[in-house]
């Protein structure tokens, strides 16, 4: 498919087993260039500059996405195309809190309805961007693909935050999930 090919051609190549995500990590097809597809920071997918309105189509595209180095690609068994991602390819839009204290489990839902629990396999981190005067919180969704944690969900995490002295002696506020402590920010003096 050329870079001007249709997204529907790419979708037609996706094997459908009905169980789990396609094994994109096993597919190594030829790179066919970039297509005009972009994921905005708010999680909106665009094709040819127009938002993709059908959530089922966005979910299908997201199921064949992977990150190779700094590049995001959509992969089928026969071809691979590059796409643009403004920040992270997913947004964590909902949070469910199960339990409390160090036994607490934080269950997130992404904008494409993937559900995952923060922990060793799905670590959280908070970055500071020089161009924004606000924290940028992320959680790993799968492989090396992250979700930006939506502002409302981050506020929920801040409400759950507890202090902890880290190994380097600094006091941080953070949250527990899956037996792991995830720092959010330094504890105020």
Outline the secondary-structure elements.
Layout: H1 7-12, E1 30-39, E2 45-47, E3 50-51, H2 55-63, E4 65-68, E5 71-75, E6 79-85, E7 90-98, E8 105-110, E9 115-117, E10 124-128, E11 135-142, E12 145-149, H3 151-160, E13 162-165, E14 171-177, E15 180-186
Parallel strand pairs: 1-6, 7-12
Antiparallel strand pairs: 1-2, 2-3, 4-5, 5-6, 7-8, 8-9, 10-11, 11-12, 13-14, 14-15
Structural description of this entry:
The chain is elongated, with a radius of gyration of 18 Å. The chain folds into two domains: 7-85, Roll (duf1285 like fold); 90-186, duf1285 protein fold, CATH 2.30.270. The protein starts with 6 loop residues before the first helix and ends with a strand. It has a six-stranded mixed beta sheet with strand order 3-2-1-6-5-4. It has 189 residues and is mostly beta strands. A hairpin with a 6-residue loop joins β10 (124-128) and β11. 13% of the residues lie in helices and 45% in strands. The protein is built from three helices and 15 strands.
List keywords for this structure.
189 residues; mainly beta; duf1285 like fold; duf1285 protein fold; 2 domains; six-stranded mixed sheet; 15 strands; 13% helix; elongated; DUF1285_C; DUF1285; DUF1285_beta_roll_sf; Proteophosphoglycan
């Amino acid at each position: 498919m050329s870079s001007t090919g249709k997204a529907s051609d790419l979708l037609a190549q996706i094997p459908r087993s009905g169980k789990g995500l396609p094994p994109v990590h096993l597919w190594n097809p030829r790179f066919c260039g970039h297509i005009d597809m972009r994921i905005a920071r708010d999680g909106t997918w665009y094709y040819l500059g127009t938002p993709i309105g059908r959530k089922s189509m966005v979910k299908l595209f997201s199921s064949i996405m992977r990150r190779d180095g700094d590049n995001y690609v959509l992969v089928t068994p026969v071809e691979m195309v590059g796409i643009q991602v403004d920040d992270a390819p997913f947004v964590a839009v909902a949070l469910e809190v199960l339990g409390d204290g160090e036994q607490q489990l934080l269950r997130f839902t992404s904008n494409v309805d993937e559900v995952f629990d923060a922990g060793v396999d799905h670590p959280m981190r908070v970055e500071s961007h020089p161009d924004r005067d606000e924290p940028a919180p992320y959680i790993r969704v799968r492989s090396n693909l992250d979700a930006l944690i939506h502002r409302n969900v981050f506020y929920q995490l801040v409400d759950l935050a507890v202090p902890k002295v880290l190994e380097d002696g600094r006091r941080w506020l953070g949250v527990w999930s899956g037996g792991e402590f995830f720092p959010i920010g330094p504890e105020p003096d």
